[in-house]
Amino acid sequence: MNRIACIISYDGTNFSGYQVQPNKRTVQLEIEQALKRVHKGQEVSVTASGRTDAGVHAKGQVIHFDSPFRIPAAQWPKALNACLPDDIRVLSARYAEKDFHARYHTTGKEYRYRVLNAEDPDVFRRHHSAHVSYALDIDKMRQAAAYLIGTHDFSAFCAANTSVIDKVRTLYAVDINVHEDELHFILRGNGFLYNMVRIIVGTLLEVGYGKRTAQSVDTALRTCKRDDAGKTAPPQGLYLWSVQYND
Amino acid sequence: MNRIACIISYDGTNFSGYQVQPNKRTVQLEIEQALKRVHKGQEVSVTASGRTDAGVHAKGQVIHFDSPFRIPAAQWPKALNACLPDDIRVLSARYAEKDFHARYHTTGKEYRYRVLNAEDPDVFRRHHSAHVSYALDIDKMRQAAAYLIGTHDFSAFCAANTSVIDKVRTLYAVDINVHEDELHFILRGNGFLYNMVRIIVGTLLEVGYGKRTAQSVDTALRTCKRDDAGKTAPPQGLYLWSVQYND
Questions:
Q1: Using CA of residue B89, residue B94, residue B95, residue B98, what is the dihedral sign?
Q2: Chain A residues in contact with chain B using a Cβ-Cβ cutoff of 8 Å
Q3: Secondary structure class of B123 (helix, strand, coil)
Q4: Residue B247 pLDDT level (bands cut at 50, 70, 90)
Q5: Where are the beta strands (DSSP E) in A97-195?
Q6: CA B233, B133, A73: angle at the middle one, nearest 5?
Q7: Residue A120 is nearest to which of B11, B89, B123, comparing CB atoms?
Q8: How far from A217 is each of A82, A85, A134, CA to CA, in Å?
Q9: Residues of A acting as catalytic residues
Q10: Is A194 one of the annotated binding-site residues?
Q11: How far apart are CA B205 and CA B142, in angstroms?
């Protein structure tokens, strides 16, 4: 068997998230069905770097699977894209080491979050950004973001219903870039807890429109209480941008 | 009765076009249903500057309707948007002269057409641009576009199944702008025939990848034969951008 690693992109709008669920349209199911077609009816299971929730997008999700076929690596995207719906694309593929694991071997991830900051919503961006009509104080938001950089217990920035015990993670960057009427949040870290990016963005937006101080972010990091952080920002602004591995 | 003119925007992806058709989801039907709710069950009919086809978008479509209500003009978008689905937005409203007519009084229109010119398609732009993977010679396309400027019989650039007799129109501009991996076609004219923008763009793209010469556009304008122009570009790249009136 050969282990193949692929970088894939998907528009999360019409999916009930990445992971297979009964009677739901999921990214994993579509990929497994495409692989089954390519393998003439044989089941092939897929492992991703991590799940994404309903409505969340991926520019550079990484998956792996095993196949008896050894076609040129560049043929894998063509073969799979021919069987996939148009909201999932395989961007590239490579033959990986036999023990490569898309989830266990990640060394870091980058997420981006896109906010349309304008008085009115935009019909063309409604599924691909969050809309915030308030004026935002970007400097204050950047001050607040600075507290998050480094190694912290991110318990306050994690959905309450999680089973993960160790909530210490390291963030390398929390950048906020302004592009015309949009804010782009760029977060890079060695790992992310459930809903962590969306809670961080939701909290920074609350700093931006004056509902909380920049320093309240530091407080939340110290108390580790979910209630001390802000609301979870909506899914449609979030993109899993890239996944890093050591090789 | 008061005549109200509105500028509206819609994402054409999930509509069977602008105009009401039996058992189809159309922009006109959604707006008339919203107006009916605002008018407590009373039917209100809507007139637009023109139709758009299935999948075609509008940034600045203009509509008019009549109402017994005389609320401040700025309240109309709020009242209607509260009743509209999120792929249609009323951007602004004003009280017009009683004889204002959104279709008959247009003096010009601007359409834009967005092409993603990249090897691979992009899941996030698949409904909002056409994808062209070939390399395009922009200079040749601009040469070809220059022939179209001015007053011509555009019969070759009109869908065959049209009932319009006078096919002479004036184009003021056919600009092609490059934005990163996209081409934006901007067409301004005093009026447009059925499918005219999509046939012009389809023809210019054929010039761009060398299927035809720039001069072939001049030939098509002279012969007036549909077969002498190129294929109709797909709907999802097209935007009705703005509509002009004399007042």
A1: negative
A2: 9-11, 57, 86-89, 91, 120-124, 126, 128
A3: coil
A4: low
A5: 106-117, 130-132, 150-153, 168-179, 182-189
A6: 140
A7: B89
A8: 47, 41, 20
A9: 53
A10: no
A11: 11
CA A142 to CA A140: how far, in whole Å?
5
Give the C-alpha separation, A192 to A244, whole Å: 13
Produce one character per residue of B9-21: b if its CB has 16 or more CB atoms within 10 Å, e if not. Answer: bbbbbebbbbbbe
Q: Please tell me which of the candidates B89, B120, B121 has its beta carbon nearest to residue A123.
A: B89
Question: Residue B59's pLDDT is what?
Answer: 98
Using DSSP, state whether A33 is helix, strand or coil: helix
Share of chain A above pLDDT 70, in %: 100
The SS3 call for residue B237 is: helix
What's the CA gap between B128 and B19, in Å, rounded?
20
Tens of pLDDT along A180-204? 999 999 999 999 999 999 999 999 9
Q: Which residues of B73-97 are buried (b: 16+ CB within 10 A; e: fewer)?
A: eeebbebbbeebbebbbbbebeebe
The sign one gets for the Cα dihedral B92, B98, B100, B103 is positive
What's the ipTM? Answer: 0.89
Amino acid at B10: Y
Task: Give the pair of three-digit tokens for residue B214.
Answer: 């720039």
| Residue from A90, A124, A126, A131 whose CB has the most chain B CBs within 10 Å, to mutate | A124
CA neighbor of B102 nearest in space, from B240, B194, B235, B239: B240
In the block, tokens 């967005």 appear at B114
d(CA B20, CA A170): 55
3-state secondary structure of B48: strand
Q: Does A247 score more than 90 pLDDT?
A: no
Reported as a single tens digit per residue, the pLDDT across A158-183 is 998 778 889 999 999 999 999 999 99
pLDDT (tens digit per residue) in B143-184: 999 999 999 999 999 998 778 889 999 999 999 999 999 999
Count of residues making up chain B: 247
- The answer to whether A42 touches A64, Cβ cutoff 8 Å, is no
Q: How many other C-beta atoms can be found within 10 angstroms of the C-beta atom of residue B102?
A: 22
Please name each of the domains of chain A with its CATH number: 2-96 (3.30.70.580), 108-245 (3.30.70.660)
